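Example S7 (structure tokens).
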């Protein structure tokens, strides 16, 4: 898409209807437009199929919201989540729509800090601030939100968020023993009941099987895309890959899957015809750690502006979201809920202990992606990822993998310092 013709569209009438603070929110689309033009549309040789994803960003506050409002009017509930442990398959089986509500913007932090302590994770503050300030149309559309007990900042914030929007909480155990699985299955069943209550319809074995296939197809399309981007030279930038993985949390799943598959076809063509976004000599970086919610593009932009390519995201807005699928085949409802729980238990978030699987997974993805160094990204005040970086560093040292850990937030203040550190790291990789 031509940079000049791109625009994040506004729809003040719709926002008004949703009870938003229209005056304040009106500043958001022009800000995202400017950042998007600079970070994404200035890239050379982008795949043509990125036009769809540009369009999704353009419609993020208008067209997609209109679709959600219409779907609600037609009886489909919209459920907001903050974590990849809350099973989307159940929402789809209940004829509902799942939207990720994690916040990746500095713009809503001040709203949160009027109520919450300042020294907590920026993702939690950003998400909460969107609701408290009425400056996120997705938050205004949802029928209810489903939080979880992964980290302290989140689980305590849900108690306050409940004062603004009905907030249910899923207990996520922090170990993965048989007895933890038994508890987890019960939590999944409670979630199913909450979805059934709002739709007034029973989730049947058939509807859950269909939803499972739909989500498996989506995750497999993302697996295919991620495998293709590992090619050297890279057929697609890390910035575009991050964007697609962010859009996965608010787009309609079937349409998204088709568009990802179309992009994959184009990437195969590009690989065959040696069309790339960077030379084969460009340093290749794997980013691991805390998720980067829309519009957090800070680190990818810094790394790629320094001449490197991000070749993998070991993150929940990344491989943790799609590396595992649910076993298909004949089942009873209990079997299927058990298989679904098994799939979700494979997600290796740092809130678990012990969590050796994640360390092994990062190293595996490092090897598979042909990366030459790992940058572990931790949002400020996220203790579990911050501490787990110690073990990751030890594993990398043992295997001779260049490793750098950074801690950051959404403010632009540390950009200069991060640029310097990233450039020094890239020099180290290149010898
Ligand atoms: S499964 S990574 S999506 S919890 S960064 S809010 S943990 S203080 S986001 Fe996450 Fe689920 Fe885990 Fe993934 Fe807390 Fe840390 Fe902030 Fe975090």
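Recovered sequence:
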């Amino acid at each position: 898409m031509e940079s000049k013709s791109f625009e994040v569209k506004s729809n003040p009438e719709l926002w008004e209807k949703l009870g938003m603070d229209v005056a304040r929110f009106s500043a958001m689309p022009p800000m995202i437009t400017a950042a998007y033009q600079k970070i994404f549309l200035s890239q050379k040789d982008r795949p043509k199929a990125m036009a769809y994803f540009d369009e999704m960003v353009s419609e993020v506050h208008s067209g997609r919201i209109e679709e959600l409002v219409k779907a609600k009017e037609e009886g489909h509930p919209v459920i907001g989540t903050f974590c990849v442990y809350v099973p989307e398959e159940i929402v789809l089986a209940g004829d509902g729509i799942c939207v990720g509500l994690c916040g990746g913007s500095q713009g809503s932090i001040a709203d949160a800090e009027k109520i919450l302590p300042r020294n907590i994770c920026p993702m939690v503050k950003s998400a909460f601030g969107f609701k408290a300030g009425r400056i996120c149309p997705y938050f205004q559309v949802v029928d209810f939100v489903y939080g979880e007990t992964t980290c302290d900042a989140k689980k305590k914030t849900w108690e306050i968020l409940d004062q603004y929007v009905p907030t249910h909480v899923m207990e996520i155990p922090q170990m993965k023993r048989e007895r933890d699985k038994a508890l987890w299955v019960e939590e999944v069943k409670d979630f199913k009941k909450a979805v059934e209550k709002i739709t007034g319809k029973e989730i049947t074995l058939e509807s859950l099987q269909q939803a499972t296939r739909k989500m498996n197809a989506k995750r497999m399309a993302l697996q295919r895309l991620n495998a293709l981007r590992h090619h050297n030279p890279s057929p697609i930038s890390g910035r575009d890959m991050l964007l697609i993985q962010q859009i996965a949390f608010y787009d309609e799943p079937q349409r998204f899957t088709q568009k990802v598959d179309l992009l994959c076809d184009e990437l195969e063509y590009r690989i065959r015809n040696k069309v790339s976004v960077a030379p084969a000599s460009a340093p290749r970086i794997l980013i691991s750690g805390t998720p980067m919610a829309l519009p957090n593009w800070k680190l990818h932009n810094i790394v790629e502006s320094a001449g490197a390519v991000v070749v993998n995201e070991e993150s929940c807005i990344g491989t943790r979201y799609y590396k595992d699928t649910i076993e298909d085949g004949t089942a009873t409802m209990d079997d299927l809920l058990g298989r679904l729980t098994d799939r979700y238990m494979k997600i290796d978030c740092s809130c678990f202990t012990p969590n050796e699987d994640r360390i092994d997974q990062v190293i595996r993805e490092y090897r598979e992606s042909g990366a030459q160094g790992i940058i572990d990204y931790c949002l400020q005040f996220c203790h579990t990822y911050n501490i787990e970086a110690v073990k990751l560093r030890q594993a990398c040292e043992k295997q001779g993998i260049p490793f750098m850990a950074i801690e950051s937030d959404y403010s632009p203040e540390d950009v200069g310092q991060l640029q310097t550190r990233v450039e020094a790291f890239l020099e180290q990789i290149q010898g």
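Notes on this example. The mean pLDDT is 97.
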